[in-house]
Amino acid sequence: MAEAYEDREEDIERELAKRRKGWNLDAIADVDFEDVCQIIRRHIALKWHLWDQERPFLNWVNTVISNQLRNIRRNVYGNFAPPCSGCPGDAGGESCSILPSGKKGAECLEYAEWLRGKKVAYDIKLAAPLEESRDIKDAVDTDFNFEVAIAKLHEHMKRRLNSSQYEIYKMLYIDNIEESEIAKKKGYITSEKNRKPGYKQLYNLKKTILNTAKQILEEEDIIWTT
Question: What percentage of the chain reaches a pLDDT higher than 90?
Answer without folding.
Answer: 23
